[in-house]
Amino acid sequence: MHSSERKFDLSLTDKVIAATGPNAHPRLAQVMPSLVRHLHDFAREVNLTVDEWTTAIELINECGRMSNDRRNETQLLCDILGLETLVDEITANIVSSASVSGTSTPSAILGPFYRHDAPLLPNGSSIVKDLTPAVPWYEQAVADSAYITGRVLSHNPLFPDMPPTPLRNAIVDVWHTAPNGLYEQQDPSQPDMNLRGRFATDAEGRYAFYALRPVAYPIPDDGPAGKFLALLDRHPHRPGHIHFIVSATGHRTLTTQIFDDRDEYIEKDSVFAVKDDLVVHFEPREQDPQAKWTLNYEFVLEAGMMGL
Ligand SMILES: [Fe+2]
C-alpha cells in the first residue's frame, strides 16, 4: 500500500468525478475526470496546506481584479507557466499536419497586447506614428528603423509536393513595442495605435512596411504574475519580437511572432514562445533615409482550413 493511500481517502477523487451528471457539457464530461485526478494528485503529492491553497486562490483573484481591456493578468500568469505556448502547440498539432511537418509557418502565442482594428495602411507605409526628436526614444528608433517585406504564400496539404503559391489580399496584422519596451496601450505618451497596422498583400502576395527592430522588454511585473516570477527567482524579460496575425480567405489564420537574432534573451524567453523557424536576421539597408535595416520574411498559410 502506498503511503498516500494510508494518509488520504482516495475515494474522494472518484466521488468528485462521479458527481458529473449525464447531461453535462460533452467536452467538460470528457476532460474533467482528468483535471480532477491531476489536481487531487498534485495536492496530495506536495501536501498542499490550507494556507498555501488560500494564497494561490488570492493570487488568481488578484489576477482577475487587475485584468481589463488593456491588461490580461490571468493570461500573463498562464504565459509564465508555459501554458499558452503548450496549448498553442497542441492546437497546431490538432488542426494542421503542415505546421508540424514544417511546411507552413509555425504559430506562436498571441500574448495579452493584441488590439483589434489596427489601421489598414497602404503597403510601403510606416507603423511608427509621430516620430520626432522630442520623443524620448527617438535616437534608438532611428538606429533601429527597419523595412520589413516579404510574401504571404498558400500551401495546400492535399498537394504536399506543390510549391507554395502567392496569396493576393491576405491581411498582415502587425504590432510591436516602442524602444522603451511598452506597447502603445501601456504608455500614455504614445499615439493611439502606434506601432500597429494591417497590410493587404498585392497581386504577387507581397506586403511591405516600415517599423522598428524589436527590443527585449520585461513583461509587466508590477502585478501578481511579476510577484510570482520573483518568488521563483526568474527574470521577466522577453526577447525582442514582432507579433503577426496573417489571414486569408480559405486559409487557417496564423498567429505568430518573429524574434530578432541579436537579442540576448533569445534562449531564455520568460514565456517560452521562441521557435527556431521564427528567429530572423535583419540585414543593413543601404540608401534608404527611412530605414537602417531590412528584413525579408515569408509567411506560409495552410489552405482549406476555413474558420480556424
Ligand atoms: Fe509581445
TrEMBL record:
Keywords: Dioxygenase, Iron, Metal-binding, Oxidoreductase. Belongs to the intradiol ring-cleavage dioxygenase family. Residues 163-302 form the Intradiol ring-cleavage dioxygenases domain. SUPFAM superfamilies: Aromatic compound dioxygenase. Its cofactor is Fe(3+). This is Aromatic compound dioxygenase. CDD domains: 1_2-HQD (cd03461). It comes from the Eukaryota. GO terms for biological process: catechol-containing compound metabolic process. It comes from Lasiosphaeris hirsuta. GO terms for molecular function: catechol 1,2-dioxygenase activity; ferric iron binding. Residues 26-93 form the Catechol dioxygenase N-terminal domain.
